[in-house]
Every structure is written in structure tokens, then in C-alpha cells.
Amino acid sequence: AKKSGRNTRRLFDQQMNQEVVRYVETRDALKLALAHGELELHYQPQIALGARRKDDRLIGAEALLRWNHPERGLVMPDDFIGVAEESGLIVPIGAWVLRQACRQAVAWQAAGLPVDIIAVNFSAVQFRQGKIDAVVFDALEESGLAPECLDLEITESILLEDLQRVLAALQRFEARGIQLSIDDFGTGFSSLSYLRQFPVHRLKIDRSFVRDILKDPGDRALVQTIIQMARNLNLRSIAEGVEDPLVLEQLRALGCNEAQGYLFSRPAPPEAFTRWLAGLGG
Ligand code: C2E
Ligand code: CA
Ligand code: CA
Ligand code: CA
């Protein structure tokens, strides 16, 4: 028994080592990625829902981070955001994302393309450092983007941070006109009372609830409840991960305000998104 315990322990140590090595490798490569310009943003449209499909219209885009790794190819955020957060690299990376996204939105607006909202994912970790105001306001000033056009997508994990600090920062953003969305809404375990405290403008309904609303009455009830709660609190609702036209019609019937998903477009690099936008008019 003693021996097998030792073997288990050794196996455990080996796995730990592999994880540590992987973490260190990813962290070091990520540090270089930023310096070497390997990071890029892809964009996915966000659509305001009208009475009918023909009344739907583009309101803006969400910026989604990609890592163009010299050997690994295009690396998706789920494979490196965790490391970026743990290592603190999300702070400079997040600042870059914000700057880049604001510039791109201004470029589209200057070209007469109707991108009124640029949604940027914001990690709770970014609030831990002191310069969060400078990061946000500098990106706006440098790009010339109107603050009303910027939408920060944060998750409920923000509630685990120093709440007074976070709340104060969010209130300063709100005072400038910046919008705030709660991402992955419904997946956290938080109390809902924060919704009244935070300057929130929009609830983003997680894809895991949206996906099966036609088949699963429980999911449908949940989505309906979120949409209604948003309306009662004077917030907008947006459904993410919409792939199916029938799901879209169900969301419309439930009174969902906005939608996003592969049905409209996959996240695309700026050039492809620009072509997609130009095609809307024609
Ligand atoms: P998220 O913010 O919840 O983004 C939605 C994810 O669903 C994106 O994955 C998007 O590509 C994907 N998606 C959109 N429509 C559909 C659909 O119809 N079907 C399916 N199956 N998926 C869809 P992605 O781009 O891999 O991003 C994953 C997560 O990484 C994001 O989840 C977000 O939490 C995080 N992330 C992405 N970019 C950034 C960033 O710049 N900063 C931070 N802090 N996090 C980011
Ligand atoms: Ca998001
Ligand atoms: Ca989500
Ligand atoms: Ca997310």
C-alpha cells in the first residue's frame, strides 16, 4: 500500500511538472507574442432584432482575441487567456486589445460603415492594477472614438475582486458614457443584487442556454426569464451563439433585443468583416 502510494505521488508530481512547464512555456511565448505583433483581433457582428428578420440591423461588433503563433497557427483565447490572467500579462494584452478595437471602430465609422458599438472583453484581473482609467480613457482619446460606442463586456467573476474599487471605476466609466455588458450571464453563482448597484446596460445570455431553447423547455424558461428581467431593470438583452434561424425567431418572439452568432457571421479578421459589412448595404 505504501509503495503504490509513492507511485501515485510520483505520477502526480510528473503531471504537476508538465503543467508547470506548459504554463511557463505559454507565458514566455505570450510575452513575446505581444512584442512581436502576433496578436490579432477578429470581429463578430451584433444585431438589433426588429419585428421581422428584414428589420434586423447591425449595431456593432465584438472584438475577439486570436494569437497567430509562428508554429502552432491560430491559437484560440480559451487556450491562453487563463495563462494571461494568472501571469498578469492580460494587463498589457488587454490594453492592446482595447486600443486596437477602438482604432478599428473609428476606421469603420470613418468609412461610413454602421459600427456604432465596439464590444471589448474585459478581464476582472485588469481591474487589479491601478491604471485602469488611463487604459480606457487613453484608448478613447487616442482613437477619437466616442465613449458611447465602447461597450465593456465583463463577467460576474468581477464580484470576486475588490468590489469598492471595481464599482468606483465602473461608475467613472459610466459617467463618461461608456456602456457595460454582463457576459456569460447566468453561468456564475452570484447574487443578482449587484445588477442594481453596477452601471449595467446589457445582459449577454450565455450560449449554453440559448443553444437548445427549441428542444429544452427548461432552457427556454431560463432565457425568457433573463430577457424579462433585463426589460424590468431597463437593460437590453443580447443572445450569444445563435446558429439556427429558428432559434433566432424564438428569441425574437421572447422579446430579446439583440443577437450574435454564426448565423450572422463567424468572428472574422478586419478585412473579411469589412467585406461582410459592405455586403449588407447591397
Ligand atoms: P465570450 O466572450 O463568451 O465569446 C463568445 C465565444 O463564442 C467566442 O469564442 C466566439 O467566437 C464564440 N461564438 C460566437 N458565436 C458562436 C456561435 O454561433 N456558435 C459557437 N459555437 N460559438 C460562437 P472565442 O473567440 O474562442 O473566445 C472565447 C472566450 O475568450 C470569450 O468568450 C472570452 O471570454 C475570451 N476572450 C476573447 N477575447 C478576449 C479578450 O480580448 N480579452 C479577454 N479578457 N478575454 C477574451
Ligand atoms: Ca464576450
Ligand atoms: Ca459566453
Ligand atoms: Ca466568456
TrEMBL record:
It comes from the Bacteria. Coiled coil: none annotated. It is found in: Cell membrane. Residues 23-281 form the EAL domain. This is cyclic-guanylate-specific phosphodiesterase. It comes from Thiohalocapsa marina.
